[in-house]
Design goal:
With 318 residues, the protein is α/β, with parallel strands linked by helices. It has three domains: 117 residues, D-Maltodextrin-Binding Protein, domain 2 (3-Layer(aba) Sandwich), CATH 3.40.190.10; 88 residues, D-Maltodextrin-Binding Protein, domain 2, CATH 3.40.190.10; 94 residues, Double Stranded RNA Binding Domain (2-Layer Sandwich). The protein is 33% helix and 24% strand. It has ten helices and 13 strands. Strands 2-1-3-10-4 form a five-stranded mixed beta sheet, with helices on both faces. The protein is globular, with a radius of gyration of 19 Å. The model has no long low-confidence stretch (mean pLDDT 92).
Length: 318
């Protein structure tokens, strides 16, 4: 059995696809796995004025097309990059175990060229880079003095841009991406949940395939992890209720302990001053319902209003 995996061409996307490829090759039915690089609309927008207007669909639409027309058998995505609505005729399956789900701060190199600035050492008004409204809101909740500026690009590019900058003193990245790129030697500070709740499905790898391709579906189910799958369904259900996207400050994080799953989610204004949070738990078997319940509880506390006001302020349709 020959399998074609569609992937973006960035270092991180390739590292993620290689991990899935390695897992698939352990299955006896598979004789060969080929990675097919596909440049997405989101990739094509990078470095242009349209980059700031990109949404999640831009990063998967070309991969979707390749799945539907059978150019590839499946695509590998980072869970947090998948839009709520997916291409008709395809399904999503979480694969492998979730990596480190938290965000980390990386400071600019100091004068000695060996050590990096620590978050606690940043002076008042320091500039910190991120393109994420969620990270921006969390940063400003506990450090309202910071100047959070837009900072885009893949992980190596963001690091280089920071170190070459005269004013950016730090950036925030997903620790899973840092680890998957073999950059764990960097001096990072991982945020705890009380400081920064992760993005929905952050550090979870997702395989997307045709809904009628039973052989591929069975293959992917063999490399799926039950706890990660429960987390995926719980977190995604919250996102579905809220209809949150990359233009909203929404944090959603679940974790499993034996057969119990605990879910926490927060909705914030872009500056972090308007904030609602809900935490609930249930059995793993009720993971999706737990997510639906948390989403509805957030709306009852005013999340819908916060999202609409934030969308209106930046000129997008909520």
């Amino acid at each position: 059995m020959h399998i074609k995996i569609g992937t973006r061409g960035s270092q991180l996307a390739l590292a993620q696809s290689e991990a899935v490829k390695a897992a698939i090759l352990t299955q006896k039915l598979v004789s060969d796995v080929e990675l097919v690089k596909i440049k997405t609309l989101g990739d094509r927008k990078q470095g242009t004025p349209q980059a700031s207007q990109s949404d999640k669909k831009d990063w998967v639409i070309d991969l979707d097309t390749a799945i539907v027309d059978s150019s590839i058998d499946l695509a590998v995505h980072s869970g947090k990059d998948i839009p709520v609505e997916i291409e008709k005729g395809t399904i999503l399956i979480p694969v492998l175990r979730r990596a480190n789900p938290f965000d980390s701060f990386i400071g600019r190199l100091t004068a000695d060229g060996q050590t990096r600035m620590r978050l606690a050492d940043l002076p008042l008004g320091a500039k910190v880079g991120t393109a994420s409204l969620r990270r921006r809101a969390h940063l400003l909740r506990f450090r309202p003095d910071l100047q959070v500026i837009e900072h885009r690009g893949n992980v190596p590019t963001r690091l280089q841009k920071m170190d070459d900058s005269d004013d950016i003193m730090g950036i925030v990245l997903a620790q899973a991406g840092i680890d998957r790129l073999g950059l764990s030697h960097l001096q990072t500070e991982t945020f705890t949940l009380d400081k920064m709740i992760p993005a929905v499905n952050q550090a979870i790898l997702i395989a997307q395939c045709r809904a009628d391709d039973q052989l591929v579906i069975e293959l992917l189910q063999q490399i799926s992890d039950p706890h990660t799958a429960a987390i995926w369904h719980a977190e995604r259900a919250v996102a579905e209720v809220l209809n949150g996207d990359c233009k909203s400050a929404v944090s959603i994080f679940a974790q499993c302990d034996a057969n119990e799953i605990e879910l926490v989610s927060a909705v914030m204004s872009p500056c972090g001053n308007d904030y609602v949070q809900v935490k609930q738990s249930s059995s793993m078997q009720d993971a999706r319902q737990l997510g639906l319940n948390v989403g509805q509880a957030l709306i009852a506390q005013g999340a819908d209003r916060i999202l609409k006001e934030a969308a209106s302020a930046i000129g997008v349709k909520p």
